[in-house]
């Protein structure tokens, strides 16, 4: 799942749950049945789970564009030279031995 | 970070939070209901009235209880517990309550009823104060909701009098 897919999944999850809650409460209140409210909402939660939890293909429409490996080779990451470290460490250790 | 389990957890948490809010709203909707219950009780007969060997008065009576409690039921009502109590004053206690009959009403269809019964629980005074005693019959009820707040109320039916002599 790419970045925009994550955003979409999060928004879709919140919107769908709220919408099902409103539908369930309204229907339950109108036909005076708390059981109906719970059943509609439970169905909504299951549907929302199926839509937003698995990594469906439509969440991967905006893949990240990484740089080519050739670009990395042209601009190498500066590495600290190992010689500097090896010289400094013995100097620090000497006072401890005495 | 944004894995399958992460999304499932977020969804479950949000879903349960909304469910709690919906239940609170359902309980709140009960307070918009203004019930208009009614009740009548007739004392048809005093079956017997005697003083027990230990000095307490006991009485048995036949009652006709009719009530219409249909307006107590809303979409959030599971059942209604209802009981009829005799209430009277004695020199020792300012309020004596004795439950004579009770019942559980499971649905709105059963909330309008007429019951012909002798007292289900024994009507015994703590002492010998019942001769000629004036008393109220009070119909109490407790509304048990499917979710949320419980309600309780009563109808007081005054003006009953027990016989002056044992029989």
From TrEMBL, chain A:
Endoplasmic reticulum keyword on record: yes
Region: Disordered, residue numbers: 70-98
One cellular-component annotation, GO: signal peptidase complex
Membrane spanning stretches: 12-32, 38-59
Primary location group: endoplasmic reticulum
Subcellular location: Endoplasmic reticulum membrane
Keywords in alphabetical order: Endoplasmic reticulum, Membrane, Transmembrane, Transmembrane helix
PANTHER family: MICROSOMAL SIGNAL PEPTIDASE 12 KDA SUBUNIT (PTHR13202), SIGNAL PEPTIDASE COMPLEX SUBUNIT 1 (PTHR13202:SF0)
Function of the molecule: Component of the signal peptidase complex (SPC) which catalyzes the cleavage of N-terminal signal sequences from nascent proteins as they are translocated into the lumen of the endoplasmic reticulum. Dispensable for SPC enzymatic activity.
Protein's name according to its UniProt entry: Signal peptidase complex subunit 1
Protein encoded by which gene: LOC101511043
From TrEMBL, chain B:
Pfam family, one: SPC22
Transmembrane in keyword set: yes
Origin: domain of life: Eukaryota
GO biological process, one term: signal peptide processing
GO CC terms: signal peptidase complex
Bilayer disposition of the protein: Single-pass type II membrane protein
Function: Essential component of the signal peptidase complex (SPC) which catalyzes the cleavage of N-terminal signal sequences from nascent proteins as they are translocated into the lumen of the endoplasmic reticulum. Essential for the SPC catalytic activity, possibly by stabilizing and positioning the active center of the complex close to the lumenal surface.
PANTHER family: MICROSOMAL SIGNAL PEPTIDASE 23 KD SUBUNIT SPC22/23, SIGNAL PEPTIDASE COMPLEX SUBUNIT 3
Record protein name field: Signal peptidase complex subunit 3
Gene: LOC101510998
